[in-house]
Protein 1
Amino acid sequence: MDNPPEQHTGHPRRWQILSVLLVSLLVVVLDNTVLNVALKTIQEELEATQNEIVWAINSYTLVFAALLFTWGVLGDRYGRKKILVIGLVLFGLASALSAFATDPMQLIIARGLMGIGGASVLPVTLAIITVVFPPHERGKAIGLWAASVGGAVALGPLLGGFLLEHFWWGSVFLINVPIVAIGVIGILLLVPESSNPNPGRLDPLGLLMSITGLLLLVYGIQHGGDSQDWLSLGVSGAIIGGLAILILFLWLEIRSDHPSLDISLFGIRSFSASLTTVSLTFAAMTGSLLFLAFYMQLVRGYSPLQAGAFTLPVAVGQLLAAPRSAKMVERFGARKVIGFGLVLAGSVFASFVFLQPDTPAWILLVTWFFLGFGLGNVIAPATTRMTLAVPPEKAGAGSAVQNTVRQVAAALGVAVLSSVVAIAYTNTIRDAPGITELPQA
């Protein structure tokens, strides 16, 4: 199926289409962080062990990261609208199963199913934006997409805290169902179908290798962060095995006449440089949000809702900066805008070492607003540069690559920061009576 003819002048309903895509995007990305403040409650209600609650988190992110690339490739081949609807329906059904889980194993399985469905949304929505918007408007549209991703990551703890304050623990999952229903209806009514007109033969071996390699790599990263034992056979073996399979996958793709991944993308300087920038930024952002959840609840003693509220300035900063970044790039150039954002966000990250239990709340709010503002000036223009470097017919695979690397980087950021926090926490309270276990953030 050819891409719609409106790809040069823009689809006449492109802004309505973008609104529907952002609704679908928000509900899936929120789920990556909404559990940050709900873990203790869920663990108590389901009488879950520490290991079971960790798997309830990791089953989602593990499958999510492993399938991003595959969903993007399938969207290019079989139709992005079709794949998006299938993924959202599965995500919504699995959310309902998660909400009414009666034991930890049910929750772990349901969360894994959520990850399978949710993984379709990031690469496919970005690919559809590339198709329905003309080149001169893509920067603004992608800026809104990037702002939604970053904002949803930051808003997750706030939403989770609010729901736990007023409803039962299952509400953090059940809230997804009506939003998914609205998104699916909007997609069916507004979004045009699109795909690569010349997809070539399917590369099942390549897709299987990418899934296996990513599963092992992300599992190793997550397990290393949870256990704080990066040299154990289970952790190092999974990471090395995953990297080996992914390297073999890249080697085979170079020699394939019908590759799932166009290796030449990495030879495009703007694509590879922006990919590196976004990956490092996401690793720092997701890791810092874990640190902030730990700091607000365990150091300052705030409730889940109060702790979640303190992430709001991060989201506000991103929502203000990202949509406007396209105009800033036109005026100053992408390098200067991204460089400014990196310096600003990096300064805030560095300031975390000065946090004290009694640091005034207004300082935290202002500081974290600037963090969001800096991130908005990095993620949006860098994502735009990557997307514009990819031919529209390969938009799904191109966006899948950047989202996959971004998700792996996010997992690494959480794992490394959780290890650092665990060591610092243990050193601080090792002599305190009655404390025998580190609460998981």
Note: The chain is about 75% helix and 0% strand.
Protein 2
Amino acid sequence: MSKVHWAKQAESGSYLGIRTLLWFYRFGGKWLLQVVLVPVLLYFVCINQRARQASRQFLQRVHATAAEHSSFRSEPGLWQIFLHFYSFAYEALAKIDGWLGRIGPERLNTIGNITFDDIVRQQKGGVLIGSHLGNVELSRAMASRKYSTRIHVLVFTRHAVAFNKALQQTNHMVETNMVQVDTITPALAIQMREWIDNNEFIVIVGDRMSVSTPEQAIWCDFLGHPAPFAIGPWVLASVLECPVYLLFCLRQGDHYALTLQHFSDQIVLPRKQRQQALQQYVSAYAAVLQGFALLYPYQWFNFFDFWHLPEAGKDK
């Protein structure tokens, strides 16, 4: 499988195409859009070989790791790959519903060892480390309606320009507090420290390699194979000297489970044991991510070869 960096993969679908699908949704409702999506997704499954292979690889490794507890009766094939793509499209629609206010708080179940109410009451900013498992954007949309506390999201949006443009047209608040980054500059680091000092929160994903330095990775076991994880979120959290929480928003039927886990009061990276400390933190994150991936395999939205280091030239 090609080792193209995830950020260099072209976005699937033009702005016009996405707006057309939203038109179907607006005037025909969810049922009509779901019907229209079937041929569209079949087309993408057929032409996007890289994403199709990545889906197959991930689903098969979930099946092998879960063994007798697997949610699949047999080794996943084309039908399961299609359902994987369909789940991705469904959650893209849920993002729009979230910003339009169509998903109410009654459909959100909060679980985990801490709630957002708890961390807001602490009056201390922090870092929320998410992933591309589930729908973190939906949780941000719902939180923006309930809390006045600012939540800043560090994103790399160039690979999804069309969808983000369409999403922003549904609600101007989408772009508020979104910070597009390629690298963490000193100026941005100072700005983020001010956010934390003002009891605000920063969201960053921990399952995507750095855009500028993909070779800076920590290798951890993930679904039975070594996988590279970025060090950036953990280094950033150590510099900000603030509490760290893990964030997941996962669909359960017609509802969503918002999971917040207190991860650490502070990420500490001693100079002499920096690598060992990073290994410990990242391994703990990878273990939690794997646990949820086994439970919700169709909500894994990394459609690239997750187990290879992009542009490294050598498989681990």
Note: DSSP finds nine helices and nine strands in the chain.
Protein 3
Amino acid sequence: DFQMPERFELHYTDSEDEQERPVMIHRALLGSMERFAGILIEHYAGRFPAWLAPVQARIVPVSDKHLEYAGQIAEDLRARGVRVSVDERSESVGKKIRAAELGRFPFMLVVGDREMDAGEVSVRSHQDGELGSMAVEKFCMLLDS
């Protein structure tokens, strides 16, 4: 780089005691962080793997009566280090599921009467589709794998 030494007014004294301007050699392994983030977004088309996604799972309660259970599941997952959010809107479950799909969350956890009675969550993966009902512990193991 010939510009940086000039901007910083860098000089060195050569073997003949004369002032010389150095040539600066530098590099960035990944370029700017912004460029690297852009490359990741483009590569994954916004569908990040769970370890990279800002929100790893979206909890979708079937109706308003399942909101409390969804909140308990969210607290449990957050305590285990999972980045999770709950769709608390009073919309139909179909609209909530569609919004979660458009949100490109790696996992969607649907909770209704069956899941509440069994103490489980119904898991859908953005990549693999329906994974069935499972306990929170099993879902966390799935995230870690």
Note: The mean pLDDT is 91.
